[in-house]
């Protein structure tokens, strides 16, 4: 029996955002009382909530969100359970070596660290576990097409270095993934669909995982 798990956070007015990013604002511009219908203006950054990063985020590169191949965003994904990684720790290549036989070339991977349990707290955007440069090289060597993480960025200090390493390859980086702790399977069918914002550096995404999906890829 299939089980569908929502892996995206709701986008809310004045929700927490990465330090320095513009906030999220909902402004009602029409109301049923005044005009017969409700209409709302939404202002937010391309990296609010659960979102994807693409090469244009950190590189002089024309590859924007609308250039992502759909088959990078939809398909089987390996869920790598890294336990509750300590705050400020790095995920290193040796951590990923344990899963080498489950990560073939062009795989999609979700790194399950437990960090999402801190969503909504003051700590979520501070001292989160990072992907080390060595772990980034591990993913690149396997030509991973998508990596999803619970953390708000790939590294708390080496943001640019690790982003550049991953994104230069065309890998999709999916950040601030919700509810990974609810996944019990080692492998799920993933759909991570960002808004199709032409030429932009990232976009909020609606992401789901399906457990028990038996169809062939």
Provide a descriptive summary of the structure in words.
The two termini are 18 Å apart. The protein has a single domain, classed as Putative cyclase (Glucose Oxidase, domain 1). It is built from five helices and twelve strands. The protein has 217 residues and is of the alpha/beta class. 14% of the residues lie in helices and 28% in strands.
Describe the SSE topology.
Elements: E1 3-6, E2 25-30, H1 32-35, E3 39-43, E4 51-53, H2 70-73, E5 74-81, E6 90-91, H3 93-97, E7 108-112, E8 130-131, H4 133-141, E9 146-149, H5 159-167, E10 172-175, E11 187-194, E12 202-211
Parallel strand pairs: 5-7, 6-8, 7-9, 9-10
Antiparallel strand pairs: 1-12, 2-3, 4-10, 4-12, 5-11, 11-12
Helix pairs in contact: 4-5
In short:
The protein is an alpha/beta fold and 217 residues long.
**Share of residues in strands:** 25-35%
Number of helices: 5
State the share of residues found in helices, binned by percent.
10-25%
Which structural class do the helices and strands define? alpha/beta
Query: Which CATH architecture would you pick?
Result: 3-Layer(bba) Sandwich
At the fourth level of CATH, the homologous superfamily is: Putative cyclase
Q: Any idea what the shape is?
A: globular
Can you tag this structure with a few keywords?
seven-stranded mixed β-barrel, alpha/beta, globular, Glucose Oxidase, domain 1, 12 strands, 217 residues, two-stranded antiparallel ribbon
